[in-house]
Amino acid sequence: MHNFLANLPILRAYLHNSVPYHVGSIWGNRLGLQVLRTTSQYLQFKVRSRSLANDISKCVSAVDEDGVALIENFLEPSQFEKVRAEFEAAFKGIELSPYKNDVNAKLFRTQIALSELKHVGSTISKHFQQNDMLNRIASAAVRRKISRLPDVHLDWYQSSSDGAADNDIENILHADLHTATVKMFFYLDNVNESNGAFIYAKGSHQLTLNRLRHEYEFSVRQAKLKKGVPSDKALVEVRGKEFRNTISPKYRQAMNIEETQICVNRNTLVIANNMGFHRRGEFPSNRPRRSIQINYRYLEEPFGKRLLSRSGR
Ligand SMILES: O=C(O)CCC(=O)C(=O)O
Ligand SMILES: [Fe+2]
After folding, report:
1. Structural domains in the chain (count)
2. Distance in Å, CA 227 to ligand 2 centroid
3. Which residue among 280, 282, 289, 294 is best mutated to probe the pocket of ligand 1, counting the most ligand atoms within 8 A of its Cβ?
């Protein structure tokens, strides 16, 4: 019976998606839908238990406290070389393409899903997908059981040196979700202000009254943007063909948002709770940023998914 239900097309699409950040109509959100969703996720998060072994407690505490943590010299030098060789083999013969296929792009990117790789990828999978310690860190940070391995992507970002327009929608400060969600970034290059080092507003992953007020105000603007209803244009930023609502200055101030750029050496793993506000840094130079992204977003499941889906268990 469960299998039958889970195979109906609408349910199947539902079950394959993680919970969306925003849903509902303008009116639904005016009535407080997003406040209800955010509060309900928070209460569920608070009552979930978790186990915290000694080897991960320092790192998980840093994620709890700041929303972001680093592990420097993550791999042994020989392991790093193996990962780098595998990464380079995966990109061999592949050209960078304009990010989001933008014709007049400044930023170029090639992204390869680890799952697409046929002959290379086992070392990367071992260290970043099947890494028990990382999976336990993510599990403790969001207080959920790891039900399957995380999605891993190999990314190569690089900007063109000409004066083309900024086409990076991800360099606008945003949160990924209204509840705790973990992404990890492992860098194969040193990253700083010149090549898009990750930017995070420490502490902004906490649910506060001001965050709830922001969620309310932002959700109404999101519903409007989705419907094409005009709203405050000053609060919308454009990148190529894409638009993104920005945090209103009023709530940005109320939430004490301060951006920190996480400049780190290669072989560092950055762990972030992307309920907190973050963005990709700019690329004023043409230095590449090669990274491996580990995404645990799938852990935040829509309501009822666990009951209906076999693989969700
Ligand atoms: O690539 C980055 O530094 C962060 C991009 C981002 O916003 C994300 O992955 O959620
Ligand atoms: Fe993001």
Report:
1. 1
2. 22
3. 280
Q: Going by CA atoms, what residue is nearest to atom 10 of ligand 1?
A: 176
Residue 295 lies inside a defined structural domain of this protein: yes
Question: Which residue is closest in CA terms to ligand 1's atom 4?
Answer: 280
Q: What is the pLDDT of residues 108-167, one digit of tens each?
A: 999 999 999 987 879 999 999 999 999 999 999 999 999 889 999 999 999 986 778 899
pLDDT at 310 over 60: no
Q: Is residue 16 assigned to a domain?
A: no
Query: What is the β-pairing status of strands 289-295 and 182-187?
Result: antiparallel
Supply the angle between the helices 132-142 and 54-66 in degrees, to the nearest 10. 40
* DSSP one-letter string for 46-81: HH------HHHHHHHHHHHHHSEEEESS-S-HHHHH
Kindly identify the ligand whose nearest atom is closest to the C-alpha of 169: 1
Residue in 99, 107, 157, 170 to alter for ligand 1 test, most ligand atoms within 8 A of Cβ: 170
Q: Measuring from each residue's beta carbon to the nearest atom of ligand 1, which residues come in under 6 Å?
A: 170, 176, 183, 198, 274, 278-280
pLDDT band at 101 (very low <50, low <70, confident <90, very high): confident
In this structure, which ligand is nearest to the CA of 280?
A: 1
Which ligand 1 atom lies nearest to the CA of residue 293? 9
156 DSSP 8-state letter: E
Nearest ligand atom owner, CA of 109: 1
Q: pLDDT of 200-255, one tens digit each?
A: 999 999 999 999 999 999 999 999 999 998 788 899 999 988 999 999 999 999 99
Position 311 scores a pLDDT of: 47
Residue 13 lies in a domain: no
Distance of alpha carbon 159 from alpha carbon 292, whole angstroms:
18
Please report whether residue 11 resides in a domain: no
How many residues does the structure list for the chain? 313
What is the spatial distance between Cα 186 and Cα 294, in angstroms, rounded to a whole number? 8
Which residue range is the domain that position 139 belongs to? Answer: 21-300
CATH code of residue 170: 2.60.120.620
- pTM, whole model, 2 decimals? 0.92
